[in-house]
Amino acid sequence: MSDKHIIKLTESEAVVKVYETAANGASVTISLSSDLTRSTEVYEAGVSSVSIKAVYWGTKPNKQINIQRADNGGFEGDYYLVNSGFYEYRTSGFVDNVYPHGDIKITGDGPFNVILVLGKTNFHQKVETAQFSIYDNTNAVGS
Questions:
Q1: Beta strands in 83-123 (DSSP E)
Q2: Which of 6, 20, 61, 106 is within CB 3.0–4.6 Å of 2 for a Cys-Cys bond?
Q3: Kind and range of the H or E element at 78?
Q4: pTM for this structure?
Q5: CATH code at position 91
Q6: Mean pLDDT of successive 10-residue segments in the chain (143 residues)?
Q7: How many separate domains does the chain show?
């Protein structure tokens, strides 16, 4: 069984935990437009972007994880991860922003868990222009 949990989701950062328990593994896709877009935000294809700030992972012995980004109808930009470990890019002063507009696909050939710390940019705030009473704030969603 595979699953993903959105641990944190703000206008500038997301933390996602993905895991698989089946012995033969599986793939899980993190969608920028649905998984990483809050109800008060608008995702704009080709404009909204997500960078990878940090990756934490663990696998069973002799198993591996592959993390890819969608690009031009396929998936590219492979990470091949084995055993357990982490990449903490943000503490080194950079982030992985290759294929930043593409969904993230995580595939394992056995049981695994991955935690991704992601940076979000250009997810615009929704603006309600309809005014139903004199107390409505047309600059804030839901007011």
A1: 84-88, 104-108, 112-121
A2: 20
A3: strand 74-82
A4: 0.85
A5: 2.60.120
A6: 91 96 93 94 93 96 93 82 92 90 94 96 81 64 59
A7: 1
